[in-house]
Amino acid sequence: MSTHADRLAALRDQLKHDRLDGFVVPLTDEHMSEYVGAYAQRLGWLTGFKGSAGTAVVLPQEAAIFVDGRYTLQVREQVSPDDWQYVSVPAASVAGWLGEHAPDGGRIGYDPWLHTRAWVEEARKALAEKGAELVAVDTNPIDAIWPDKPLPSDAALAVQDDAHAGKSSAAKRAGIADWLAERKADAVVLAALDSIAWAFNIRGTDVSHTPVALAYAMVHADGTADLFVAPGKMTDAVAQHLGNAVRVHDRTAFAGALKGFAGKRVAADPASSVAAIFDALEAGGAKVLAVRDPALIAKAVKNPAEIAGHKAAQAIDGAALCRFLRWFEGEAPKGTLTELICEDRLEEFRRATGRLKDLSFATISATGPHGAIPHYKATPESNLPVAPGQLYLVDSGGQYADGTTDVTRVMPVGAPSAEMKDRFTRVLKGHIGVATAVFPEGTTGAQLDSFARRPLWDAGLDYPHGTGHGVGAYLSVHEGPQRIAQPFYPGGQALEVLRAGMFLSNEPGYYKAGEYGIRIENLVLVEPREIAGAEQPMLGFETLTFAPIERSLIDPALLTAGEREWLDAYHAQVLAIIGPQLAGEDLAWLQAKCAAI
């Protein structure tokens, strides 16, 4: 099992033993999470792919890995073309590919705890046209051949206090009970880990960089709840916090409990509740309502305490980032830096605040050609030196008890080329286009996406990812359902209506394969906007992230008067918020970076 080719061969042998002609390997867990614990990293173990979204299909004579535009370059660096075909989504789908490539009459296996029912139905229909069968497995064949597979985390739960949460767990569960009453339902299954963390005001460390715990929950019409979590995770403090209205069970009891709702109406979200959950509820005689998770919008629309906490976290995080950027600018010309050195140094600056709980995702520390890989992750094998003439891109964030941050900045090493400045300024124009957007209530993220792309489109350019994702309150750095994106980009609901109180990222970019990448990312808050004479309620964005945007990469001639005004005002805010936290050379550096353009 020392090579990924060996692992692929072992899986094919296991499939023969299981009388299967193929198997589907998604990158997710039993909760349909984007980021998963080490125990659920089956796709990475099998293929070597280190991205956060993808699926593999293994057949007797061929195998394919499916990734979206964010990973087009990365998958080719990490996954061998000798063993795997590269397939792009959404241009192609896993189900469609199976319908074309599965052997006639074949048995294709899938793990019902790792797929939605909608995917199962789509794949089953595609296979039926070839006389092939989709087969649910009791034991995942990857687990059978993974000799040193990590165990799920046994870390203890922690309480998210009401001061940070802004609302008690009892009040949140009462809101869910009202939601159930409106639907004449008896209970709802919560399977998404961040929904459970939000609803019960608990946090965990079971998934790297996302403060959630492996658990399931059921909330009932009377406001009581059942929480399914490994017993070792419970502490006296958590038990006292949950109170008598929350019954705690072993996580292993969840599947059986799903069969105890005979004759009752039970809600479950088809996007976050896997096929196995629906199957078990129906097998037990429940009437299942396939509806959206009631925590989803309630969690996405932040309350005043969450907003205030986020702003406090941003101020701390921005100062740490500014210290790093000044350090980088001084050290990079010496030729001693590498991607991993920079990554580690930035984390040191964040940890020096004394407030950091964790990073909010694996830092993207990318120089030169690696900057053109939107979700690049440096490894000892890929680690490049930071060299003169390159652009260095760093996309990073922190988890703090009061907020989750995510920010991207680009720094040149030496004088940037005219093309680099042109592309950077076009990305900045798009960023400002979103930051200054004013739009009526009912507007979706898809309607705003072109605001960011227009300056690039004018030059025949574009970027292969969405413009913005939702962000949690000391929760997931990628939080749904809100998103700013064209509808076909994966990762969220681009057609979701934006509501006051939602956090999103604003991160247009440009990527020149093999040479450099550019992205400018701030987080923003959707807020009401008063406009004289407006005939309907209007919304806009408040920028929440504060760090200078590199002046030497900007071509002022490409900016309009309004764009210059925004940039100068933004840098004045950066200086006002971050400046008091800095001193000496750090402060002098920031003052220079924030001077009027």
Can you tell me the residue ranges where pLDDT is under 50 for at least 5 consecutive residues? none
Shape: globular
Characterize the biggest β-sheet: 6 strands, mixed
Q: Which strand-content bin applies to the residues?
A: 15-25%
Please provide a written account of the structure.
This protein has 597 residues and is of the alpha+beta class. It folds into three domains: 4-145, Creatinase/prolidase N-terminal domain (Creatine Amidinohydrolase, Chain A, domain 1, 3-Layer(aba) Sandwich), CATH 3.40.350.10; 158-298, Creatine Amidinohydrolase, Chain A, domain 1 (3-Layer(aba) Sandwich); 301-593, Creatine Amidinohydrolase (Alpha-Beta Complex), CATH 3.90.230.10. The protein is 34% helix and 20% strand. The strands form eight sheets. It has a six-stranded mixed β-sheet. A six-stranded mixed β-sheet has the order 12-11-10-8-13-14. It has a four-stranded antiparallel β-sheet with strand order 21-28-27-24. α4 (94-101) runs parallel beside α5 (117-128) and α16 runs antiparallel to α17 (445-457). The chain is globular, with a radius of gyration of 24 Å. The termini are far apart. The mean pLDDT is 96.
